[in-house]
Amino acid sequence: VRDCRLVGLLDLDLEKDYVRSRVAEYMNYLIDIGVAGFRIDAAKHMWPGDVKAILDKLKDLNTKWFPAGTKPFIYQEVIDLGGEPIKGSDYFGNGRVTEFKYGAKLGTVIRKWNGEKMAYL
Question: Is 32 an annotated catalytic residue?
Answer without folding.
Answer: no
